[in-house]
Each structure stands twice: as C-alpha cells, then as structure tokens.
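If your schedule permits, I should be very grateful for your opinion on a structural question. Kindly check, if you would, that the fold set down in the tokens agrees with what the sequence suggests. Thank you for your consideration; the sequence and its tokens are set out here:
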Amino acid sequence: ANVNRLRKAHIKYITGKIFLLQGYPQNALREFTDIARSDSQKWASFSRKEIANLAHAFNFISISDATQELEKIYFAWHTQSFREQVLHDLIYLYTENQDYHRAIEREYELYKMQTDEVKKAQTKQQMITTIENLFLGHVNIKIAAINILALYDSFKWIAVRSPRYNSIVRRLVDRLVAV
C-alpha cells in the first residue's frame, strides 16, 4: 500500500511537470499542491520547490517568501542533485532581489558541493561574473559604499580570480573616495 502511494505521488509529480511543459502552469500548480501534502518526503519536497517557483512567477508570493520557502526546502531532501536545483533557484531569486551577498554565498556553496569539474568551472565563472557585474557597474544597483566594501572584503578571493581585478579595485576605490 505504501509503495502504491509513493508511485502515485511520483506519477502526479510527472503529470505536473508535463502540464508545465504543455503550457498549463495552473494545472501543474494544482498537481504539485496535492503532492506537497502527501506522505512521500521526496515528491513532497520536489513539489514544494515547484510550488515556490510557480507562486513567485505568478506573483502569488513575494521574492522574500519564495526564498524563505526554498531555504527550508533545501534541507527537506538529501540528494545532491535536488540541493543543486534548489541552490540554482535561490541564486536566481537572491540576484533578482539584489541580495548579492547571499547570492554569492549560495554560489560558493554550490561550487563546494559540485564534483564535476565542468560544472565547478561554470559555477566559478558565474561567481566571477557576479562580482564583476557588481563592482564594474554592469547592473544598475544602489548599494551603499560601506556595503560594497563589506561585499569586497567577504569575497575578495573571487575578485582576485577575475581577469579584470585591477578595474574592480579601481572602481571600489573611486566609490569609496566619492563618499
């Protein structure tokens, strides 16, 4: 009986994913909501992740609520691939919310977790790109100079790996002098 419930939860999850691919996100949301209340820890965790992403995409919940939910879900299922998916979603949401400190922290957590060298190199490049965008002004953000300095201090080991490190330092100094 327990195996049948787990199988039904898995089938409902796949059905929800099919609805998403077919362009019926509200039907998918309904399927995921049913599974989120099921006994299956695995499929309930996967469904809660999908619900948080869909609810944010439809503006049913704020970015901060979505990130809080994903932070909780991160510990709900123990496989590395699931945690990597959750971290990717968190990085996206933190960046969208201009919480770059947490975004880079999650990128680093993802970097440490990965075993595939190609994925590791991509994540490292993503961290470097985030730092470059922050310090070289490729994104339109308004962060106080003291916060920029704190970000630099926390993640200077990433900035050093950038081929544009000198420009990053110059821009940081210019920003601090302007205050």
Summary: The CA atoms of residues 149 and 172 lie 7 Å apart.
